[in-house]
Amino acid sequence: MHVQVLHMDRRFRVKDILETTNKCAIFQEVDLLQCSNTILVKASGHSGHHNPLQCECVVLNQLHDIKGIPNIPWSGTEGELDVIIFEDLSPTLEDVFKSTGKNLLVNSVSLLVEHLILCLEYIYSHSYIYSNIRPKNIFVGLAVPGQQANELFLFDFTLVQLYKDPQTYTPVLFHSIHPPTGAATSKGFSSINYHLGNQLSHWDDFESLTVTP
Fold this sequence. Notes:
alpha+beta
């Protein structure tokens, strides 16, 4: 999408543009009333009857009671944009990789994997497959070398898929899938089934997890 400088409610000012795709942009913004406070803003243009940000917001609200799911202080529209505001949970695992040269202790990697598996299992228990494992989408908060590990969070639920009916637990009717536009940045971490357009299961998230650390 075309990047627009987004000033939320005249209180927050853009500090950094974290990511832009043809679908959306993610900003880090600073609170002008409390400069030590930052938020993450995900914004996209209106897209007719299928709105990916609204769909993502619905999923996140359904999963809000799960450990490892980011809190949404506010969502709605700002001008011509659909917006979701997240708490700033930086840094990401990708940031940690860059700062350490991927030289993480075995205990740190084990802790990361354990927390991520637990989070994914919670998501599966709510009938969803995450489908978007990559270092940029894993926020580690205070879980950085030299500090006490904090809770991990998964970010970006635009590729999440419902794999069974949450009421009857019957499998959702499968249609051959194709990687969505803008998902190319995740292809290095996607499962073989995802690339082939086959039906996905929770094992595909685990396959992606094995190539992430």
